Structure formats: C-alpha cells, structure tokens
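Input.
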Amino acid sequence: MRIADPLKDNMYAELARRNLRRQSIRTILAAIGIIIGVIAISSMGILGNTMKMSVTESFADIGDKLMVYPAPGEETISQRQIGQIRKVGGIDRIIPLRSNAERVEYRNEETFASVYDIDEEGLVTLVELEKGRFFKSGSTDCVLGSGVAENLGATVGSKVIIDDSRLRVVGILTERGLGFDIDTDSGIFTSSDMYEKLYPDEEEGYSSVIITVDDIDELDRVQEDIEDRINKKDELIMVFATNMITESIGGVFDAISLFLMGIGSISLLVAGVSILNVMLMSTMERTKEIGVMKAVGASRRDILRMFLLEALFLGVAASLIGGLLTLGGSYMVISFIMDDAAYLLKPSNILYILEGVLFGIGTSLLGGMYPAWKASRMRPLDALRYE
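Output.
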C-alpha cells in the first residue's frame, strides 16, 4: 500500500519546490547559512552541556556528604559535639578526622602532603584502594594518595619519613581528582596512634567531621538539625553541604551553554537576513507571475502560503542537514576530548540538536514572512504592468 504524500498534489507546494530548484545556486547559499547556524547553536550547547555532565559526574561521589568545621574563633570540634551529632536521625556514618600539612621524604625525594588521622572504616567509605591494603588500627602503617606516591616514587612496602618518624606504606589509593571532603590524591592516611606520635602537642578534638546520610533528599534537613542542636546559643560549628558544589557547577555551565548558544545564534541571524534577501529577489523576479496568478483567481492567502512554503521547505531541509552534521561532528569531538562518546546520546544533548533544528526552521519562516506578505499584497494590474 502506497503512503500518499499530502504535499504532492498541492499546487502551491509544487510551485514552491519549483521556485527553489529554479534558483538553485541562491537556494544552496541560503541553505548553507542555515546549516552553519544550526551547527553553531547545537554544537555550542552540546559542548557546554557535556562539560557540565563530565564535571558533575566527577563530583557525584561527594554530593551526599556534609562537612562540619569549627566556627570562626573555635579551634576544634569536640567529642561532645560529635555525640550530639550522633543523635540526629538520617545519618549513615560519622567520620571525624584530624589533619596537618607536612613535608614527606622518601630516599632523595620530598613533597608536601596532608597527613590525616582517620579510622580504617571511615577511609574505606571515602576512597578506593589501587594497590596493597588499608592500615590496621594502632599500627604505624600508612596509605598514600596516588599523587604523593607518584611524586616520591614510593610503592607498597616503602618507608616514608615524616618528622623523623618512619611509616611503612601498605597501600596506595586510586586517583580520584579534586574533592571537597578530603584531599585524597595528596594525602597520607594513618591511625590515631601514629598521628598522636607525630603531633603529641596537638589540641584535643577534631579539625573536621565528614557525615554521610541515608537519603540524599534528607541532606538539607540533617544539616538544619545538626546546626539547631549544636548552635543553640553560639555559633560553634559550620555545616557545609557538598551538593551545593554540584548545583553551583551546574548553574555555571548552564550559563556558559546559554552564552555559547547566543554566540552561535548570530550565525542564524545572518542566515535569516540571507533568506530575506533570497525571498525578496524571488518576489521581484516573479512579479508578473504573481499578477497572472491573482488574475486567474489566486487569493492573498494562496500567495502567502506559496512563499511561506518556500521558506519552510528551505528551512526544514537545511536544518535537518545541520542537525545530522552536528551529530556526526559532535561524536568525533566528544570522542577525542572525553574519550567517551556516550555523552552525546544523553537526552539533554539530543535536545540541543532539536533546539538548533527548530531554531533554524523558525529563522527561515521569519526570514520569508515579509517577502510573502509583500507578494500577497500586490495588486494584479500593478503586477502585470511591472517591467
């Protein structure tokens, strides 16, 4: 069974197609403008959105945490305050820690690192191990971040020196990148006993507390409960929700995408002016033809429809080509930059292509609207006398 083409038997649609084919060079040049505009808008949006998704995914593992710090004027977080935090519902794990910046040596190499006192269970919750094992409670062992191990050239079994104390490396962590809970890559993690041996004069208490929650949707509520419980009279602690970081990053990249798409839309503006020029030229060249059509009964609406169909056909064809070229070009660029073309198939990126196509079609119709209106307003006698 043949599927009928609703435009095939439409006289005005056929006239629109014929007129576009008749001025093929002019039509192709106008189409190129639309194609470039669609590619510019879509690819700019995809680039910004892909960067946003890549960065937010990198921070996804810290978005369910609360960071508790001493308020300005306070030195540490006390054991009593941690006890108050434990009474708040919805908390999965509380990880208190102490930290100090220190110079670390191994053989002829040295680097600066953050030395952490953190229990083994807490460390297992926050990081992934690449080599070796985690330290045992009460031991003098340590686990190195990937950056520290690389800078020192240390491996599992090496003995690093911190302030004349030797710590045996029993594990090296997987590289994680930037984090807002602990400095994993540039950190050295050891037991409380070893930490107290390194810093015997340090004041009692903890420099920060990491809190994970059972349900990420309860993060704000848990934050408020902790603040209300401890900061009743004076501000003793500050509670920072890490999901604010991902939300802020998302907002920044949304603004970047919008800005880039705005730049790309200039190309479509130029394409719209090109279409306006093409249609006006076509109107002038076909003045007598329009007069004949009106003389034999064509209405203003018929003339308007014919010219708008020309703009629509040109816009649809060029915009679809632009969308397909954007899809292919973005695939190659994302594969090269991100090493993962799966980002391109995310619904949000497909929407940017659709937006570019619709924008191109809309620009074509706007560009053809004035010439179509002008052609429809011609009087038959004036058109027939036109030279």
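Residues 64-241 form one domain.
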